[in-house]
Amino acid sequence: MLCANQWLEYAHNNDIQDDSPSIVEIFQNSGNIVIENEQEKVSPLVSQAGEFTLIIDPPKPPEVVKKEEPLQPKITQPVTFAPRPSARFKLLSTSYNRDRPEDSVALINEPGKGEHWAKVGDFIGNFVLEKIEHGTIIYRYGSQVSEMAVEINAPVRIVQESVPPFGQGTQGRRQVDRKSILFGD
């Protein structure tokens, strides 16, 4: 500091005016380092942090603007429901247990399977057997519930020809023609 003061006093006393460039001008003109605006300077750490932020939290893609189309009436086809399948089985008989209804069974004649016993919960074709009662069953297809009763036919009269005891032959045997057996004459 003492040197600088002495030089300034000497320069001031002797009226020395130097046209040589100052040290700042020499430094700026050297071209090695360019001094930029202080606001434009960004440290390498800050620039890497900015790049890392873009990796972790990328910017949202631009929103796609949809063009609104004029409303047109939509042509819809009428709703058609599948036809309900018909029961292709017959209820021949039921065995109902009043004390333990879960042990009840029904005799079913189903095409392709023939006659078989079914209990509650069994499938009969596309139907599920829901309940067995005395002479009827309740079965379900989807949410539709139906009931079926045993078909009772007119009783058949069986006429039996009397057979003579063994060894007596045909003597004393009454003759019956076929017409009287079939029609009860």
In words, what does this structure look like?
21% of the residues lie in helices and 21% in strands. It has helices at residues 2-14, 23-29, 44-56, 178-183, and strands at residues 90-95, 105-110, 114-119, 123-124, 127-133, 136-141, 144-149. It starts with a helix and ends with a helix. Mean pLDDT is 75; it is low at 179-183.
Strand order of the largest sheet: 4-5-6-7
Largest sheet: 4 strands, antiparallel
Residues in helix, %: 10-25%
Radius of gyration, CA atoms, in whole angstroms: 56 Å
- Name the shape in a single word: rod-shaped
Proportion in β-strands: 15-25%
Number of strands: 7
What is the H/E string? HHHEEEEEEEH
Distance between the termini: 158 Å
Unreliable stretches: 179-183
Number of helices: 4
| Arithmetic mean of pLDDT | 75
Concise account of the structure shown:
The protein is an alpha+beta fold. It is 21% helix and 21% strand. The chain has helices at residues 2-14, 23-29, 44-56, 178-183, and strands at 90-95, 105-110, 114-119, 123-124, 127-133, 136-141, 144-149.
Helix/strand layout:
Elements: H1 2-14, H2 23-29, H3 44-56, E1 90-95, E2 105-110, E3 114-119, E4 123-124, E5 127-133, E6 136-141, E7 144-149, H4 178-183
Antiparallel strand pairs: 1-2, 2-3, 4-5, 5-6, 6-7
